[in-house]
Write a structure and sequence with these properties.
The chain has 290 residues and is an alpha/beta fold. It is built from 7 helices and 18 strands. Helix 5 packs parallel to helix 6. It is globular. A hairpin with a 5-residue loop joins strand 2 and strand 3. Helix content is 23%, strand content 30%. The longest helix has 14 residues. The two termini are 19 Å apart. The structure holds fe (ii) ion (FE2) (2 copies).
Length: 290
């Protein structure tokens, strides 16, 4: 059921921007989605919570945004820069808010690059700590968070060029094994008279796979993409294929930052022209009736 109006506000991004003095940038992402449903009811959904709650709470205060009435928190995937603020935010809200995530969000997150090994890349708290402060809902299949908002669940990986991350590992039954981050997903907002807005965290499932999946879940054209596209180390060829497939799926505007990467942002800016926006802490875009 499409909403009448959707506001998407970036509460935390790597880039602090320059519009409002005092907002903090932090490597991570947190996005507030506020929708006005046809019934007249408003829903507030928080996708991701940054790497700790300090920037999120500071920026929300400065932007005059109330966190206490958030209806649901969704986690795009396990990485610390998207989940690290979870306990702090839940304590701040002081209510058992539903937290929706894929079950793999609880798996240990280990990152192994040539130059770096990080054993603490995942959710920085235990399942029991999370359950103590929230109503934790773990699911693999898409789920409605509000009449107009879908959490997309596990994303089928269909494209040949969006490779599974070869730097992502976990530990299972005493063994260090590769982990494809199946928990990586996003949300889709259906807006009356517009189409679907897809909001993502890091796009480890592949942004084209996520957008394609979103269009199947909502049955609508995915017109806008917002968030991090994780093309930071992608080749020119992969970036160009990504842009061409986003266009083919019907994407008309992109609002990106976080892990998108400078070269991908430059190529997206050339392709989408004034429909390309770089996001930052405090960035806001409205869809539907203004
Ligand atoms: Fe990220
Ligand atoms: Fe990530």
């Amino acid at each position: 059921m499409p909403c009448t109006r959707a506001e998407v506000i970036i509460l935390v991004d790597d880039y602090a921007g320059y519009n409002i003095r005092g907002l903090l940038g932090q490597h991570g992402l947190s996005v507030l989605v506020k929708v006005l449903e046809k019934s007249g009811r408003t829903y507030k959904v928080l996708l991701d919570v940054g790497q700790d709650s300090s920037a999120l709470i500071h920026n929300s205060k400065l932007l005059g945004i109330e966190l206490h009435d958030i209806d649901v928190i969704a986690l795009s995937h396990r990485h610390y820069d998207h989940t690290g603020g979870i306990l702090g935010v839940l304590k701040n809200i002081d209510r058992r808010v539903p937290v929706v995530a894929h079950p793999d969000v609880l798996k240990p997150g280990i990152v192994i690059y040539e130059s770096r090994v990080d054993f603490n890349a995942g959710l920085p708290c235990s399942e029991s700590e999370l359950r103590e402060l929230s109503n934790l809902i773990l699911a693999r299949t898409p789920m409605q968070l509000a009449p107009s908002i879908w959490w997309l669940g596990e994303v089928p990986r269909a494209t040949s060029y969006e490779k599974e991350p070869d730097w992502s590992y976990t530990v299972s039954e005493g063994k260090l094994i590769r982990d494809p981050l199946k928990d990586d997903t996003g949300i889709a907002i259906s807006v009356e008279g517009y189409g679907t807005v897809v909001v993502v965290g890091c796009s480890h499932s592949g942004i084209v796979n996520i957008v394609d999946h979103a269009s199947k879940v909502t049955g609508e054209v995915p017109k806008a993409v917002i968030g991090g596209l994780h093309l930071i180390s992608a080749s020119d060829d992969v970036i160009k294929k990504t842009i061409s497939d986003l266009r083919r799926l019907g994407v008309e505007e992109v609002h990106v930052g976080h892990c998108t990467g400078l070269k991908a942002e430059a190529l997206l800016a050339i392709e989408f022209d004034e429909k390309f926006k770089k996001i930052f802490s405090g960035y806001k875009v409205v869809f539907g009736s203004k």
